Amino acid sequence: MTIDDHIVFIVDDDERIREALGDLLESHGIRAIAFGSAGDYVRADKPDFPACLILDVELPDINGLDLQRQIAEGDHPPIVFITGHGDIPSSVRAIKHGAVDFLTKPFSDADLMAAIHAAIAQDRQKRSERAELGMLRQRYLELTPREREVLPLVVSGLLNKQAAAELRISEVTLQIHRRNVMQKMAAASLADLVRIAERLEIPITHSRRVGGS
């Protein structure tokens, strides 16, 4: 990783904490942007890199746990909570809603850096998965209406003749559509196509019927 391909956002109302965290991250070659409140963080234009959000629990405008809940539906960086007033219910709530860690001040630099690296790795993975899903959705949109009818029948396990009968087309025509679906979706095998259909949450309304017409 280079300093330009990931970033850490710091949200803490204590300027001394912001400066100390910024210096620590800089010493590890990690770029950081600090905010004094949740509102400043939410309103800011932020670089689109794999990231970690270091979030204080007690903030002047909103509780950090409430901010976690508010941004949960969006694409936000994994959160590492820091607090001077930690308690078990708060830590449980934070972790239950996806926080990477919940650190009580004073915490060690090693513990914080381990949590940050875990958060950035998690965000990098999530971004990769979102990009792959976006690519699959684009490929699916490029299928013809008939090919979109063929896909769920194929991945359901129906034989070619069964799928053809379902669509009232010839088996040869079904095979052509099936080949086009495999090529357009870049599926190397039927098993690969099944995994793609699962990622796209394509409803499977048929099951293989041995001996069906």
Explain how this protein is built.
- The protein has 2 domains: 7-131, Response regulator (Rossmann fold, 3-Layer(aba) Sandwich); 143-200, Arc Repressor Mutant, subunit A (Orthogonal Bundle).
- Helix 6 packs across helix 8, helix 6 (145-155) crosses helix 9 (190-199) and helix 7 (160-167) packs across helix 8 (171-184).
- Strands 2-1-3-4-5 form a 5-stranded parallel β-sheet, with helices on both faces.
- The protein has helices at residues 15-27, 38-43, 64-70, 88-96, 109-141, 145-155, 160-167, 171-184, 190-199, and strands at 7-11, 31-35, 51-56, 79-83, 101-104.
- It is an alpha/beta fold and 213 residues long.
- It contains 9 helices and 5 strands.
- The model is unreliable at 209-213 (pLDDT under 50).
- This is FixJ family two-component response regulator.
- One of its GO terms (molecular function) is DNA binding.
- One of its GO terms (biological process) is regulation of DNA-templated transcription.
- Residues 7-120 form the Response regulatory domain.
